[in-house]
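Work Package 4 report. The design task specified in the project plan requires that, given a folded chain encoded as structure tokens, an amino acid be chosen for each position. We show below one input record used in the internal validation round.
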């Protein structure tokens, strides 16, 4: 029975099938939420937060992941506003709002006066995907990383995160947690890199995956090696590996102003399929 405003309530294990049917409407765009649902069964203790659902006539019509990341799922402007009004009944706990542009914009406009000034707003990030062979040759030396690569890989992960987010993942005593995250990606087979001797020259990771898609994060080439085409051949290799062994479609989203990265992804064969927005605190 629904007892909350606007037909919004937390979802649980009994809602899993309906939730997966919802994410399947746009399975590539919704890969993060799909992944979280499949790996937690929507159990709050495993989610580390909540998954809210909005219902109309007993049917689940939209959802919102509320953890460290707040992510609207298949949310119209009206749905996003309803989720925002629920969010305003509690203090802000999320560090990032991210998802399709329209839903994020409506959500943010509703909570902005109460949630304080964000550290950064990234309004129109192209969401890209590829579901076929890359348009360029993959570099044969790109491979899954192993625990033996950790000492070369970890500094590149820190450098990428710091450059992308604007703050080191080790800030505030976060080094141990971030090291564990990098090791987890290695263990899953979701970390890829190319090395030249003792030098890492390219890396990328799978952030999340479903039976339909895998989302790439952490694409990085050291500053002194940029402009050599390492990201193009490296990403072509990652696309091949991921499509063959993890999921049939590969996606990512990129900052609108990052022209070199956008050109590299275009050369590989990625095409824009949506626009994302990110609000960072």
């Amino acid at each position: 029975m629904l007892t909350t405003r606007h037909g919004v309530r937390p979802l649980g294990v009994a809602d899993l099938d309906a939730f997966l049917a919802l994410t399947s409407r746009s399975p590539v765009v919704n890969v993060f939420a799909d992944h979280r649902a499949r790996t937690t069964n929507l159990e709050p203790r495993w989610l580390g937060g909540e998954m809210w659902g909005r219902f109309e006539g007993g049917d689940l019509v939209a959802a919102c992941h509320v953890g460290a990341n707040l992510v609207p799922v298949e949310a119209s402007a009206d749905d996003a506003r309803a989720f925002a009004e629920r969010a305003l009944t509690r203090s802000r706990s999320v560090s990032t709002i991210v998802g399709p542009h329209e839903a994020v914009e409506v959500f943010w406009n509703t909570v902005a006066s109460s949630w304080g000034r964000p550290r950064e707003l990234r309004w129109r990030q192209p969401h890209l995907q590829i579901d076929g062979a890359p348009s360029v040759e993959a570099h044969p030396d790109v491979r899954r990383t192993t625990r033996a690569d950790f000492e070369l890989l970890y500094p590149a992960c820190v450098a990428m995160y710091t450059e992308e987010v604007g703050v080191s993942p080790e800030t505030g005593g976060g080094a141990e947690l971030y090291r564990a995250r990098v090791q987890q990606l290695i263990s899953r087979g979701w970390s890829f890199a190319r090395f030249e001797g003792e030098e890492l020259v390219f890396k990328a990771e799978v952030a999340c995956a479903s039976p339909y898609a895998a989302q790439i994060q952490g694409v990085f080439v050291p500053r002194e090696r940029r402009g050599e085409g390492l990201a193009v051949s490296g990403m072509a290799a990652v696309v091949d590996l991921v499509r063959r062994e993890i999921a049939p479609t590969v996606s990512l989203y990129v900052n609108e102003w990052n022209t070199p990265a956008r050109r590299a992804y275009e050369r590989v064969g990625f095409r824009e399929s949506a626009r994302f927005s990110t609000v960072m605190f």
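The two ends are 35 Å apart (CA to CA). Validation will be extended to a larger panel in the next phase.
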